[in-house]
């Protein structure tokens, strides 16, 4: 028994190290306390990634790189140049091994086509290559993607039909499987891998009623699983104004949770429709949360 306990303590410690501070909780959803430590205004409204040294932010049609003080150090405002498939939308992004992975598509009339995981050099933000989408998977939109470095996988999520997340092999780009989310978080925006779980940000709070958006989590360690049980991971009641949660990430060097959120614009069916009182523009901010020991 003592042996079993020490092994489980060890695996907890390994999990905590691998996912930058997340812990396996008794309910399997790895919930952990985070304290808001900083808010940084950025240019992009879609996604965020962190490599421990820099923050990478995606706008719908641009990529930005910031230092940890929030200073812009690089940008690419024509990220679709060189792509084989026509594109007009970037969702949530991730960074792995010096490369940015971006979920890109042509988004129009509520559906995506030409879905691809485009890979950019994290130093220059220039396009390097793309991983093609497998249309027969059933995925019809890419709102975000996440690299699972520990298992060599790439996941894509779908805002239009969020029932599944879609798994690809990171090194070959081959489509592997889709995992059913039970239940389905509505209006998914971003995903990131934290240890043995995937975190899913969901724009399911009604901004008109001041309702906070949420982050959900689902286990991904069992690669043979057909489905994953989804739980509420965090309710974002500490945003400056209820609005639109977007991408998210965990800083691998600090364990900080970083969430992009937009406020000020009234969004109807994914399209901006004027502004809320007191706003004449949409504000995009990175909320940086430190894990509470
Ligand atoms: Ca989005
Ligand atoms: Ca919302």
Question: Brief description of this entry?
Answer:
With 293 residues, this protein is mainly beta. The protein has one helix at residues 2-18; strands at residues 34-42, 47-50, 54-59, 62-67, 72-76, 89-96, 99-108, 111-121, 127-132, 144-148, 153-157, 164-169, 175-182, 188-194, 197-202, 214-219, 227-229, 231-235, 244-250, 257-263, 265-268, 271-275, 283-291.
Any overview of this molecule?
- The protein is mostly beta strands and 293 residues long.
- The protein has a single domain, classed as Beta Barrel (Lipocalin).
- It is 6% helix and 51% strand.
- The chain is built from one helix and 23 strands.
- The longest helix has 17 residues, at 2-18.
- Bound molecules: calcium ion (2 copies).
- One calcium ion binds next to loops.
Bound molecules: calcium ion
Overall structural class, as computed from helix and strand content, comes to mainly beta
Our count of domains comes out at: 1
CATH class: Mainly Beta
Biggest sheet, in brief? 5 strands, mixed
Percentage of helical residues? under 10%
Q: Output the strand order for the largest sheet.
A: 10-11-12-13-17
CATH-defined architecture: Beta Barrel
N-to-C series of helices and strands: HEEEEEEEEEEEEEEEEEEEEEEE
Uncertain parts: 1-27
Radius of gyration: 18 Å
Cα-to-Cα separation, first versus last residue = 27 Å
| Average pLDDT rating | 90
Q: What oligomeric state is this?
A: single chain
The shape is globular
How many strands appear in the DSSP assignment?
23
CATH names the topology as Lipocalin
Total count of helical runs of at least 4 residues: 1
Percent in strands = over 45%
